Amino acid sequence: MAVASKPDTRSRAVSDREEIAAFLRTDRLYAAYALGDLDGPGRSRCVWGMAYDIVGRPIALAMHHEGLVPQPLFLMGDTVGCRWLLEAVIKPRDAYFQARASHEPAMRELYDLESRVSMVRMAVDRAGFQPIAGPAERLGPADIDDLNALYQLGFRTGFPASVLDNGIYFGIRVRGRLVSAAGTHVINLREGIGVVGNVMTHTDYRSHGLAKMVTSAVTAELLGRVPDVVLNVHADNSPAIAAYSRLGYGQHCALIERLARRRSGGWALIRPLREAMRLPWPRDQK
After folding, report:
1. Do 141 and 213 have their domain in common?
2. CB within 8 A of 152, min separation 6: which ones?
3. Distance between CA 97 and CA 258 in Å, rounded?
């Protein structure tokens, strides 16, 4: 279904921190990553836009990380407002959308979308946290080689030692070998929120509760600094959802992630014909 298009005078680029933060706080658990970007080390690479209703009240927000490869593009708020923003303010050729399913019509009108990745945002606070004891130990810069050796089993690239200086990471070793670890994506003391991520257990040591132990340790450390902690989990990963639930995490909302390429020029005009004939997209000239 098409999303109504409105004049772009109701959407604009914004840079005022408090204006952005005030809107993000309306659903701070959903906006946890964006709140991290607001004050994080990469904030200079973030571009923000907001849309407003007829009386000037903010109704939608978009945030994009500038970079050479498809970067995260976060959407929040009214779908029509998000459509205005994607049309007139935040317009990358390639993007990795992070949004709610209700935002898909706004994306689809301007972008061709790859398959959907369905996620669940889970959250816990100090009152609801149920820690689990285990042999997890805090990791420091000296552990970066071991951490990268573990992460290379499931992630594309390793991390610099600075992530262990700036973030909170815990790991479990078996006979000296790091076999499970978890860390942080976001720590924003000003906004009182943290995000747990990069949870990984070596395939030979899974199903022993190690991921739950390291996640518990990171969560406990974070909750000593901020009142709310969130994490993402694939919607079809029932064992992980159950494990995080045992730590006191509850499901806050459903999310989607979609790789996208913007339609433009003549190919956008003949899209219906192309789809009817099942023609592929033209490849970029190399």
Report:
1. yes
2. 158
3. 5
